[in-house]
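Chain A, query sequence.
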Amino acid sequence: MNRHQGNRGKGKLSEGSNARKRSSNSNKGNAPAKKKHATATPNNTNEIRLNKYISNSGICSRREADVHIATGLVSVNGKIITEMGYKVKPDDDVRYDGSRISPEKKAYVLLNKPKGFATTTSEGKGRTVMDLVANATNSRIKPIGRLGRNSKGLLLFTNDDEVVNKFTKSKNGVPRLFHIELNKNLKLEDLKKIQNGFNLEGKLITVEEISYIDGASKKEIGLKIKNTGNTIIRAIFDYFRYDIVSLDCVAIGHLTKKDIPRGHWKHLTTQELDMLKML
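Chain A, predicted structure.
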């Protein structure tokens, strides 16, 4: 075979190879070529399966949760979900039979708040009560009601909606007892007006109890009220032209500051929690 024949042979082999490549490509149709460096979209690690979410809330097992989902007893953000394997985020509004549930362990923390801490969960507000209970639990607890930055005393934190509703939405409510110091002696006639109830901006204001503190001046008052904020307390004394010098929440229902130094907290015992739910 001479040199030219050899070159022609190589040309034919090259032509055959190209033909096979074209044939192979035509079998694949017009599908675009895969990108060499394509990456998969990462999964949202915060999402969990709905049945696990329900199981973690303590209502039932995962298998039972699947049955509840299939029968339409579970909603997510207002929409009934019957899809198996549906995933939810921790902040989603998940409800079982109409009641909101949470996969977190229920926590109940009682803080003896000192002055200088704002009652808020917002950042950028300086020192807050959330700083004081940061190490109490991994559950996302929030304070029930408010105490002003310069007020002190008991503040209850929880992630249990049932307990929160008992304070804020129940007709009975939960009484809180305050030790209040005024800038001047409280007149007996004003004390009686507060005790009997009075109209403030067209609204009837009532308290559970009000009295002078035994062994103290008439500036020091004990006040029991079911309202969860301290704004109404200041409004009461503003109406009668008194300034509050000091405000200390000394009891919430049957819960007291015993064995809780200022700035410290404790978890409620099972007995304390049961009594609170019975109020």
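Residues 69 and 141 are 27 Å apart (CA to CA). Helices lie at 3-27, 50-56, 62-70, 129-132, 161-168, 188-196, 231-239, 270-278.
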